[in-house]
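Final report, Chapter 2: Outcomes

The project's central promise was a pipeline that accepts a single protein chain and returns its three-dimensional structure in a standardized token representation, suitable for archiving and comparison. That pipeline is now operational. To close this chapter, we reproduce one record exactly as it appears in the project archive, with the input sequence first and the structure output second.
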Amino acid sequence: MVLRGAATPPSPARAAGGTGWRSRPGRGQTCRWMLSPRLAALALLLTACGGTAATATPTPPCRSPIQFPAPSASAGPVSAVADQAQVDPGATVTFTETLAGPATVQVDCSQPLQVLVTDSTALSVYSGYSVGAAADACGTLTLAGGASDTYQVTWPVDPSLPGGTYTATLVLGDAPQLTLTLAVGTLPGAC
């Protein structure tokens, strides 16, 4: 056997008519079964030394959090706004919906303003309602031009809720439903 110019001496057992490479050599003799692990280690070492080192992916620069405007929506006689566009898990978002005249709307007295929050896959993560309305702010409401009623409902964001985009649908009686989009958690790369 020849290894890049180095020859392995023949086994004395083979020269003396023994069983060849399978016989155990005497003291100070080299044989194939001892040489193979050494070659494997040498090949592994040369491969590791000759390879290129893995480079770390650079960390993106930290940037100041983006300040989003408070989400708002309107349809017909109703308009809504959230007090914040981005909220941390465990915090609370307050939604305010205003009914402006001239309008006639049927509003439930026990749960006038309802909120349904869904995640980006349309899975419901929260539903709630505002406290009961005063007698003059529920039932069949007929508002003259310039008159308005305001309703509020809160969303206590669950501390275990994963970060992402969420949609809040606000329902005020038979008025058109309004949807607001909010971000929960910090955006990637924010400080």
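Archive annotation: The first strand starts at residue 2 and ends at 3.
This record, like all others produced under the grant, will remain available to the consortium after the project formally closes.
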